[in-house]
């Protein structure tokens, strides 16, 4: 019985050490913005994006270092029944604390129609604090943005 008690105490202590050991400050954010209903033209055909879609932006890292960044659209209900987003691209932009954009990572324009467009961006270290945004363009027009503040 005493052996079991010591083993339990040892395991509990080891678990506490694992939980308290730090590998550096990490932070993350996730946010979603509804995609408003809109119409656009593709090859003379009118396409309509109904309600039911959200644009989600995920960012992970610490300080000015971004270790992971992703943005994409998820649709449900009527939105999932649409023909999707044609001629789309997702850009990532970075602005300073005065809201001046100093960097844009422009995504490729995809000519196909896709119900769930998505893009990852490469890890990077930003030169300034401010904000990081993801922007969805469809048919050359910006349709929705989602931003996160990058602070100390």
What report would you give on this structure?
The chain has one domain (25-150): Immunoglobulin-like (Sandwich), CATH 2.60.40. With 152 residues, it is mainly beta. Strand 4 (53-62) and strand 5 (65-75) form a beta hairpin. Strands 1, 4, 5, 9 and 10 form a five-stranded antiparallel beta sheet that branches. The protein has one helix spanning 2-20, and strands at 27-34, 38-42, 45-49, 53-62, 65-75, 85-96, 101-105, 110-114, 118-121, 124-125, 130-138, 141-150.
In the CATH hierarchy, the architecture is: Sandwich
The chain-level mean pLDDT equals 82
Question: Tally the helices: what do you get?
Answer: 1
What series of H and E elements makes up the topology? HEEEEEEEEEEEE
Number of strands: 12
Distance between the termini: 50 Å
Computed over alpha carbons, the radius of gyration is: 21 Å
Q: Low-confidence parts, pLDDT < 50 over ≥5 residues?
A: 1-25
Class by SSE composition: mainly beta
Fraction of residues in helices? 10-25%
Strand content: over 45%
Largest sheet: 5 strands, antiparallel
Q: Predict the CATH topology.
A: Immunoglobulin-like
CATH class (first level) name: Mainly Beta
